[in-house]
Structures are given as C-alpha cells and as structure tokens.
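Re: beginner question about structure tokens

> Can someone show what the tokenized structure looks like for a real chain? I only ever see the sequence side.

Sure, here's an example I had lying around. Input first:
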Amino acid sequence: MREAPCKSVPVTANNPKEIAMNRDLGVWRSEECALVLIDYQPEQFESVRSETPTDLIELHVRWLARTAKAFHIPIVLSTVGVESGRLSPTAPAIAAELEGVVPIDRTSMNAFEDQAFREAVAATGRKRLIFGALQTEVCLAFAVIEALKAGYEAQFVTDAVGGRSEIAHLTGIERLSVAGGVPNTALGVVVEWFRDWAGPLAEPARKVTGWYLSEVTKVTDTVGIAEAEAARARAALAA
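And the corresponding structure tokens:
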C-alpha cells in the first residue's frame, strides 16, 4: 500500500508556527526589553536536580541582573510565600545585585495571576520580556505562557533556570518552545543586548562581561574561556 503524500501544515490561530511567523524578526535590543526574575529563593534552589548546577544558575542570574542594571533595563523581581513565612526571601547573592528593586511577593505559583506583578510588568513599558525562574516546569512555564497570552514576547534563559528533575526541566522547555517562547542562554542574552564592542553599551558590557569571565572559573570548568578573553577580563576589572 502506498503511503499518502505528506501535507503541509496550515497556518491557523491554533498553529504555534503562526505565532513565530507573525513576530518581528531580528535581534532583541536592550531598549525593548525588561528582565523578569521569579522565585530565586533558597528552598527553590535546594530542589533543583537538572543539568545546570545551582551555583552556575545563581551566577547567571547575577550576571543578567548586573547587566540589566548597567544597561538601564527595567527589572521585575517576584517571590512566593515569603510574607506567609513558608519560604525565604530571594537568595542573598542575587538580592545583592538588585539594590532598589522591590520584590513582589505572591501566593500564586503563576506570577501573572498576581495583580501587583502584572502591573509591575506593564509599568516597565516593555513588550519583550526576558524570563528566569525556578522551577522551569512550574513558575517559569506558567509565567511565560501567560505573558504570551497577554500579548508580550518572551525569551527564557535555559542556563539560568532549573527543574526538580532533568525530565521535568526538559519538558518545561519543550512546552514553552511549543507555546511560542524563545529559548536563549545568559551569554546569548547579554551579547544580544549590546552586540557591538564599539557601540554605546560597549564600556559597561566590558565591565559586566569581565566580571562574569572572572567569576565563572570559580564555579565550573565547563564554560570555555580563551586565555586572551581571560586577560581582557582582568584588564576590564582593573580599569
């Protein structure tokens, strides 16, 4: 029996491909973006069992926060269960990078169900949101999917998030990608925000990137760094 020929998939409102095709193409610029950080709390870190180690997740979140500050990108920070005493506040190392950013505490696992959170995101005036959250399969997934439904565009930083298991993390990433979220990495986000070593953000980019390259070697040897890069990082920090 001959198999029926493959048919092209129609582009409909229910087809995720339509979502991606309807978006403006091109890189995301810093002036278009807001950084959204959700539930980076000690108890959340303790339960992560996916690929990226928690100390590297924490470093990547710190790098994103430090870069957003340097580039004047608005930041929305949220926690869950702090006011009720169920969970601790944002991890101290991350909170130290976010001076002046007031966390929005919630009871809902879906941040977009919290009115204060929705209002804070809207108040940034940005329609392109860069998300990081713990864990991938719950607080990240729910927030990104709701943001897409609300008309925002969303990236999520795969090496700044984690799940309770590898399968949970990977399933969360797949769910988000099918829904129209865009996966990226911390390095990809930072470089995409400035892109040009001779551009207006080059000087702050050198400083935050130099800081990261000097710190990441204390955490892991799985991130490649050329000797010339390491030398430039040392020079940038010394300047």
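Each token stands for a local structural state, so reading them left to right follows the chain. The mean pLDDT is 90.
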